[in-house]
Design goal:
It contains 5 helices and no strands. It is an all-alpha fold. The chain folds into 2 domains: about 45 residues; about 80 residues, no CATH class. It is elongated, with a radius of gyration of 20 Å. The protein starts with a helix and ends with a helix.
């Protein structure tokens, strides 16, 4: 994790120095940094998958809750990256729309779980 942070900080410094003189090279450097960081992050996917499998085994029949949580996490991560790219391009309005769409998507996905929770609570009260 610290290597990724150090790489991002060094890349940011290079981008700040390079952008005024050669903006086209700064964009290429930004893309290269993103690819390197994503490649480094993909190494951790195996541990996430094994941890998720273990969690799904523990929760058993309540696996839908974990599935929704993981989907919500994925939506939020993708939306954050897309929003940041929009902001970097100077499109704050589009960044806001991306964030709103992600929140709406997560809400729509979680509504069936909220309904199940309400049914459980009503069942306990009876």
């Amino acid at each position: 994790m610290f290597k990724i942070v150090a790489l991002c900080l060094a890349g940011t410094l290079l981008l700040v120095l390079l952008k005024p003189a050669r903006p086209e090279y700064a964009m290429l450097l930004r893309l290269a940094l993103l690819l390197v960081v994503f490649a480094a992050l993909l190494e951790g996917v195996g541990s996430v998958v094994s941890g998720t499998s273990a969690l799904m085994t523990l929760v058993g029949e309540n696996g839908e809750i974990v599935r929704v949580m993981l989907k919500a996490l994925g939506i939020s991560l993708v939306a954050q990256i897309a929003s940041d790219l929009c902001k970097d391009s100077g499109e704050q309005t589009l960044a806001g729309v991306v964030e709103l769409a992600a929140k709406l998507g997560i809400l729509i996905m979680a509504l069936p779980l909220a309904a199940q929770l309400a049914e459980m609570c009503l069942g306990w009260l009876q």
